[in-house]
Amino acid sequence: xxxxxxxxxxxxxxxxxxxxxxxxxxxxxxxxxxxxxxxxxxxxxxxxxxxxxxxxxxxxxxxxxxxxxxxxxxxxxxxxxxxxxxxxxxxxxxxxxxxxxxxxxxxxxxxxxxxxxxxxxxxxxxxxxxxxxxxxxxxxxxxxxxxxxxxxxxxxxxxxxxxxxxxxxxxxxxxxxxxxxxxxxxxxxxxxxxxxxxxxxxxxxxxxxxxxxxxxxxxxxxxxxxxxxxxxxxxxxxxxxxxxxxxxxxxxxxxxxxxxxxxxxxxxxxxxxxxxxxxxxxxxxxxxxxxxxxxxxxxxxxxxxxxxxxxxxxxxxxxxxxxxxxxxxxxxxxxxxxxxxxxxxxxxxxxxxxxxxxxxxxxxxxxxxxxxxxxxxxxxxxxxxxxxxxxxxxxxxxxxxxxxxxxxxxxxxxxxxxxxxxxxxxxxxxxxxxxxxxxxxxxxxxxxxxxxxxxxxxxxxxxxxxxxxxxxxxxxxxxxxxxxxxxxxxxxxxxxxxxxxxxxxxxxxxxxxxxxxxxxxxxxxxxxxxxxxxxxxxxxxxxxxxxxxxxxxxxxxxxxxxxxxxxxxxxxxxxxxxxxxxxxxxxxxxxxxxxxxxxxxxxxxxxxxxxxxxxxxxxxxxxxxxxxxxxxxxxxxxxxxxxxxxxxxxxxxxxxxxxxxxxxxxxxxxxxxxxxxxxxxxxxxxxxxxxxxxxxxxxxxxxxxxxxxxxxxxxxxxxxxxxxxxxxxxxxxxxxxxxxxxxxxxxxxxxxxxxxxxxxxxxxxxxxxxxxxxxxxxxxxxxxxxxxxxxxxxxxxxxxxxxxxxxxxxxxxxxxxxxxxxxxxxxxxxxxxxxxxxxxxxxxxxxxxxxxxxxxxxxxxxxxxxxxxxxxxxxxxxxxxxxxxxxxxxxxxxxxxxxxxxxxxxxxxxxxxxx
Length: 915
Ligand code: PEP
Ligand code: MG
Hints:
It comes from Prosthecochloris vibrioformis. It holds the Pfam family PPDK_N. Keywords: ATP-binding, Kinase, Magnesium, Metal-binding, Nucleotide-binding, Pyruvate, Transferase. By secondary structure, the protein is α/β, with parallel strands linked by helices. The protein folds into four domains: 1-129 and 221-264, Dna Ligase, domain 1; 139-220, Acyl-CoA Binding Protein; 402-541, Phosphohistidine domain (Glucose Oxidase, domain 1, 3-Layer(bba) Sandwich); 579-607 and 638-670 and 707-914, Phosphoenolpyruvate-binding domains (TIM Barrel, Alpha-Beta Barrel), CATH 3.20.20.60. The chain contains 36 helices and 34 strands. The strands form seven sheets. Strands 15-25-24-17-18-19-20-16 form an eight-stranded mixed beta sheet. An eight-stranded parallel β-barrel has the order 27-28-29-30-31-32-33-34, surrounded by five helices. Strand 27 (579-583), helix 22 (587-595) and strand 28 (601-605) form a beta-alpha-beta unit. Bound molecules: phosphoenolpyruvate and magnesium ion. Residues 788, 809, 811-812 line the site of magnesium ion.
């Protein structure tokens, strides 16, 4: 039961503010949508009886209201509800905001439903002004502490609310510049060496800088400060970096953020105070150890901002065993309660511990699988939950390349190891140095691999971080902005590399102990697993998991990574309903796919077989043939090649099903373009150059993707499918005679009307029967079609009467369904995504509302007339987790994707099955 003075509000009108205090809160962890993650978990920790400073949360509904009503608040919120909530907090704390003798100070923090580290705004020490600072000095008996708080408050408020910011990424923060100048003038290095007088001067200089730049006085009235800070927090929901972050992480704009107002506790009261951030397990490797860092005599932002390099949490054990033991106990309680790895923030005020935040911790893909696996082993979660804990895309990190060991050892023995920093994001990256996020984006757009090198990163750098292969920072710990964001993006990251000296203005990187000066564009290699920074380029090589899968490497098979990966694959196999096939055309691809767990081939694009060796000449001869006889002669030359192709593929696949698609692309795609190549071809096929040029010209089409391609080719030139079907069936008979139970699935592309499938089906059956008679062998083959033209999707009931299977070609179905050329959409899709017309690229993740609807209609109507119809997907979206989940909901039999996506597809299918 709510017990606060806000009861009245809760019963008579909509509740917008929820209070929390140690031992009791109006909210709990289930109320994330309303209170944001931070607010809900503060309430939960308070309910658990953990030491949480009291406060209140203004709900996300206020944020939504704010944006829906021209940046105004619900009526009465600022005038009545907020003052009431404040009064309740003041009475709990026994202090008043703005009281010159004993002021209440508060923090004001954002907190959305999903955590968005560092993307939105926070203000600490609110309530200080020229009068209350004296009261705080008096009460704490520590004037230096009081003025340090005030200095920090003016800096944060000036930045966040009054918006005095760096001119651009190449300039330092204006407040930091003033601070650096002060330290230089005083001949000191650390902020902690500033005395009370310095801090007083700094407050004056900061305020003057704000006035000069904005024309506005710093507000002295604490209530005005509070309203300004709340406005800034809600305003920060729509700042550029938050919007970019939301896009990258698929967080919808309408969620809004909550705003948490909480009594301050102080980590900067002297050497018996401090602050820290920690994870209940290692967020980089997943190891079950207490992992984090802290700083004594510091406030929260000092640890994350990376301006001072913090100490590992284990040092706290020696420094303050009692606090460490209490913290370690809270760590265990939180893990038992939440049954997950948690990320916590704490402050020690004069030897007393306070919990400021807890949330499910961000982790690398490697850590995610290890933590889920070990928590299952420890009995905290079951295997279903373990599967649901893994974002399938995280498995990509287990398949990520590492440095070629020999090359790396050689680089180190050549003295190219430059420095060591914190191994904040595992993996190997090599690329060209860029010193700004903007440059990183530009260079990466030119197709270069980039290493972003910064003194420290800030949320403004997010786009550049996304573009870079790896991130290297001079300052900051394992929980600095660079480290957190890089891990979440799955980027290689080395943080806190103190030996670096970066000169943004000159565009130079100097490294202590190294003579070489590195400039923009020079190569650098980062080993994010060990923290080593190495000069020059180093080739990367596949991960242990890839080693085991591709080469059966027995040493790699002993590794923990492989063991855990393998266990997840087995769990996924237990629960998934969808079969997982692969798109492959060559025996070696098929072998890789089987090693990754493919259960069949969902798409063999036969055109890829035509480019090898001298067979392309016969293909071209066939295409340029003037008469059926000429064409047949050329096709006869191709037959043995195709037969061998299919034999190789069937052999690699054993008894697994193989879907072979008949020739699909426009014929001109096979023809030469260079003059010398055309001359060469004219000699080889013994046709005058002019004639060759004329025939090539005749094949030209205005819109080839909608021209003579797919089944239309076989209807005009039946001898082409006839040759391919003969090759398929002859290879199948040979395999059958060798004792394998092959079931070739012959697939007709680009069907839009049932008549096309009927005619092509007749050709297929005629040749198949003929070959089986010649070979005296029975083959259980299937005939089916791609569904990749909208009309085929809408008339699937008729088409299914002549097909044993459908495979959704969602590349073409998207292209034709949206009327967007798959080859040209790159020009406008990024803009479409920026404008939120599309949330994701429909060529990567299925447009479920439109193209998905076509699939749904097709699957329903197809199964109505042919209940045994087998259904699959073979477009690129078949390897995308969201699409896989959709395919599961449609009841498809399988998805088909590239070999390296199979583990991701398996996990996605298992998660879909587990709901
Ligand atoms: C498709 O269109 O989805 C498909 C798989 O075929 P292709 O990409 O070869 O056109
Ligand atoms: Mg297609």
